[in-house]
Amino acid sequence: MPVQERRIILKHVDQPDYTTDLDCYLRHGGYEVLRKALQSKPEELCQEVMKSGLRGRGGAGFSSGMKWNFLDRKSGKPIYLICNADESEPGTFKDRQIIHKDPHQLIEGIMVSCFAIQAKQAYIYIRGEFPLGARLLEKALDEARAKNFVGDNILGSGYSCDIVVHRGAGAYICGEETGLIESLEGKRPYPRIKPPFFPAVLGLYQCPTAVNNVETLCNVKHVIDMGGEAFSKIGKPNNTGTRILSVSGHVMKPGYYEFECGAITMGQLIDEVCGGLRPGRELKAIIPGGSSMKVLKAGERYKGKTKDGKEFEWGIRDIPLDFDSMLTAGSMAGSGGIIVMDDSTDMVEALANVNAFYAHESCGQCTPCREGSLWMNKISSRMSHGQARREDADLLESVAGQIAGRTICAFGEACAWPTQSFVDKFRDEFLAKADKSATPEATEPKRAAVPLI
Q1: How many other CB atoms are there within 10 angstroms of residue 282's CB atom?
Q2: Average of pLDDT values for 99-104?
Q3: Contacts of 300 by beta carbon, 8 Å cutoff, 6+ apart
Q4: Which fold would CATH assign to domain 22-233?
Q5: Which of 46, 61, 79, 218 places its Cα 20 to 30 Å from the Cα of 424?
Q6: pTM for the predicted model, two decimal places
Q7: Kind and range of the H or E element at 423?
């Protein structure tokens, strides 16, 4: 029996007769969950989210309920909610589907979340390269305000809250929550040092702030609708609910798909859902959660134990698609952006492409990241231009090792992990580049030379 999607967030987005306007959303039960939430106590809503086991869908997979519980409610300061719609992770294209095709679902999720944490002001920080998404959100907000779903005295409840759409300027670092907050305050998006600047205590304008991803906030609506306990039974323990997966690369049917967490394996996703690899090709590698996650190599074996003590051993196709299984395999589920590479892929070229991106996107605040990302870019670029040296593999690993864990934010890991995993798992290809560069025909490179370092 072929695997079936379970669409909760994406239930309506691809229906031919479904549109982005409010009337269509209302016909499908829109804003009924908000009405229900406004009749509940805020602390009860927070308990339902905690009970659901919902984990953040932006990358780290942290408990959403726990993040809300960390909010400093005793400070007397206003509480803010920020929707992180800065979907900048290469290989990820799920949040924009929600924004472009079902913006009212996001707005309802935000309003339910705001009432739960008693925020009176929310912001949607949207990536600068999503101009259409920003316009659709503005239009949807105007419609929602006209019907009193957003604004003053919402639905006569006495609760007031507004939402502002703020467009970024197209910087990857603004996906990091404290860098996003700095940008929202009108400053250069330098991530803040934690502690003391945990957003739950000292966030936007030094006030308690919850920063949640688009998909996460949409899930909150469904948690409150069905109840936290019912939601917790979807997926696997500690990996509850559904997950939207963005699949790109060398598969026949790339796209976005929604499945219960852990309900299918990587092999089922590639072979049954995405139609398999291109004809005549073999699987070589997979990046499982956006380009910053560690690459998985075909042919590797991953061993572990289940919670009841049973041992297991997986191949790359056997890995269940959930947060914990990806950790067992030595990577992370990240943003859900799965990049599939077949045996036609030049792994040195692929790493050079990734390194060029992260060198360009480094905010420059931390010396290891600012300098190291440029070094890795220069080395891998030089290797891909026919000027590789045998010591380059070790040099790349050395530079990456001096970045990860030594920066203010996780961008250090984001730029170091690809280099560390690519070189570790495909070292033979990096050495082969050096051997090819040493041959007589390589003395006149076909492409422009890159400065040696």
Answers
A1: 10
A2: 97
A3: 315, 316, 425
A4: Rossmann fold (3.40.50)
A5: 61
A6: 0.93
A7: helix 411-425
